[in-house]
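FAQ: What does the model actually see?

It sees only this:
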Amino acid sequence: MADNNSYYERHIFFCLNQRDNGEACCAQHKAQEAFDRCKSQVKALGLAGPGKVRVNKAGCLDRCAGGPIAVVYPEAVWYSFVDASDIDEIVTSHLRDGVVVQRLLTPSDVGR
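And it is asked to produce this:
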């Protein structure tokens, strides 16, 4: 449960940035589908709402080389994901159970 200073226990932000100049971006890697999957899984598991989890869209998070990218706060855990099973694992392990999914962590040196 969230502490008294936080409306949500956790936020997960998905970069949905689209670049029209040919540069790499998360939108090229099915980021919208991942966002939609996460949102539906969080809702289905009863994790959504005040004191629980909020799934948010974001613009560029400036870590394009690791895309697609999502970040969970307040822990500031950055994930690179590939498919629906990765999203499901993030939801059940991290968002529900509070256990970081080590295999999906974005390397700390990955930027734009």
